[in-house]
Amino acid sequence: MRKMTEYKMFEGCTIGNRIPFIEAASRKVFDKVGVQTSQAPFACCPDPTGVKSFDNDAWLVMGARNLCVAEAEGKDIISLCNGCTNTLRGVSHQLKHDSLKKDKINAQLAKVGKEYKGTIDVKHFVDVLKDNLDKVKGAISKQLSGLKVACHPGCHYMRPAEWMESDDPMRPTTLNEIVATTGATVVNYGEEILCCGSAVTNAYPEHGMANLKIKMDAITKAGADVICVNCPACFQQFDTQQRDLSKQYDANYNIPVLYLTELLALAMGVSADEIGLKFHRTRLSGILEKIG
Amino acid sequence: MAIDFEFRKQVMDHHIGSEVIKYCYQCSRCADNCPVTAVTTDFYTTTGYNPRSNILNALLGYKDAIFAADELAIWGCTVCDTCDEVCPQNIELTEVFTFLKNQSIAQGKGPDFIYAQAKAVFDSAKAIPSQPAIERRRQQMGLPAVAAPDVNEVQTLLKNIGADKKLK
Ligand code: SF4
Ligand code: SF4
């Protein structure tokens, strides 16, 4: 029954319905690395900073329903988003360790003919790439030498460590390692684990901006050409908020942002057009020239 | 200040292991590492966002102190999960804060954004509903259409759990 070579793709609401160019780059990279995926009718994960804060039981029941959809096919989930990964792993964790919650949620799922069993795993795509690092290296056809990259793995990719079981929660290295396969230089900027501030920006923009400023100042000071991320919420925070940040602080923040799979796609010889880099808000022309 | 014992019990029953909140010794490592405390609080001020105070008030059962304060006291948290990692007592602070936020919503309080997202999820089973322009863009990029979820099924689940009644 269990065929583990193919994952169920969980692109999530933001990538699927707002910034699909990231899915395009991800699919190209997965093809080149040999990661097989197929689709499933997943609903919203839902958001571990939004719906979970609204109602933990609503978060559990929706997350569990998504897990049931993948369980029905006996396939693990590959997630393109930190938030979705955090939710699906967090829901699994709560249901596996709390039989009262599990019974309560399964009683609800039974009414729609589903049952959460806990038979599948949820993986962030960064960890899947890390497990296939040799294949990633093998697919690189163009060295991005000279490109200085500031890596931002984002909070929910590795925290809380207890149930994300991913990278080191306070000294993450995996994203750096994968970026380094392209020949680019990873720059240390000292604020690697600082949150992008997406969630607080939604409720209190002024505090979100103050936080983003700390992050952007450190990245700027380190001389980075580009920020590399692996979460659509972080991507949007960096790609769309730099303009407002500049206005608010009368400064000029304009460092381009690349999703990890976009950076890899470029290093694997895919053209900027094919993966829709023109849809980014921050300007990429400078770095595209630099990498030629 | 009145101690609300029922509230205190709810905090400790929220999750398996939530009762370790009792071991908090107010070392302030959570607040010292909290990015939102850093941008909202000056040294030794009592305004702004402070995870340490929230834990103290929650474990003592000072419900009014939590919910009568400015909403920033609860909703300032950006859910970065840093406090969970640095707490020497292994308290899952963010799960306690989830409980506080859920209670705030039950009182009809909380940021508009949270309600707007919950409404979108209830109406379309997606936090960001599919839009024709993006569907076209997906097609142009050679992407398959997003597999549509069963909205009725999701709504049934959310209604049965009572989440729809909290929407504004
Ligand atoms: S870090 Fe832990 S023990 Fe220290 S004040 Fe915060 S919650 Fe309490
Ligand atoms: S999860 Fe919330 S309280 Fe904890 S460090 Fe992050 S912003 Fe602060």
Helix content of chain A: 40-55%
Q: How many structural domains in the coordinates of chain B?
A: 2
**CATH architectural arrangement of the largest domain in chain A:** 3-Layer(aba) Sandwich
Largest interface: A-B, 67 and 66 residues
Q: What is the molecular shape of chain A?
A: globular
- SS content category of chain A: alpha/beta
What's the CATH topology name of the largest domain in chain A?
A: Rossmann fold
User: How many beta-strand segments of chain B?
Assistant: 0
Give me the Rg of chain B, rounded: 19 Å
CATH class wording of the largest domain in chain B: Mainly Alpha
Write down the secondary-structure element order of chain B. Answer: HHHHHHHHHHH
Helix content of chain B: 40-55%
Which architecture name of the largest domain in chain B does CATH use?
Orthogonal Bundle
> Element order, helices and strands of chain A?
EHHEHHEHHEHHEHHHEHHEHEHH
| CATH fold description of the largest domain in chain B | Fumarate Reductase Iron-sulfur Protein, Chain B, domain 2
Structure description:
The complex is a heterodimer of chains A (292) and B (168). Chain A is α/β, with parallel strands linked by helices and 292 residues long. Chain A has two domains: 7-125, Glutathione S-transferase Yfyf (Class Pi), Chain A, domain 2; 141-290, 3-Layer(aba) Sandwich (Rossmann fold), CATH 3.40.50.11810. Chain A contains 16 helices and eight strands. Chain A has helices at 12-17, 21-33, 51-54, 56-71, 82-97, 99-110, 125-131, 133-139, 155-158, 161-164, 174-180, 198-203, 205-221, 232-249, 260-267, 285-291; strands at 6-10, 36-38, 77-79, 122-124, 148-152, 185-186, 226-229, 257-259. In chain A, strands 2-1-3-4 form a four-stranded parallel β-sheet. Chain A has a four-stranded parallel β-sheet with strand order 6-5-7-8, sandwiched between helices. The longest helix of chain A is centred in the C-terminal third of the chain and has 18 residues, at 232-249. Chain A is globular and about 55 Å long. Chain B is an all-alpha fold and 168 residues long. Chain B has two domains: 5-106, Alpha-helical ferredoxin (Fumarate Reductase Iron-sulfur Protein, Chain B, domain 2); 112-166, no CATH class. The model of chain B has no long low-confidence stretch (mean pLDDT 95). Chains A and B meet through helix 1, helix 2, helix 3, helix 4 and helix 12 of A and helix 3, helix 7, helix 8, helix 9 and helix 10 of B. The structure holds iron/sulfur cluster (SF4) (2 copies). One iron/sulfur cluster binds next to helix 3, helix 7 and helix 8 of chain B. One iron/sulfur cluster binds at residues 24-30, 52, 55, 87-89, 91, 93 of chain B.
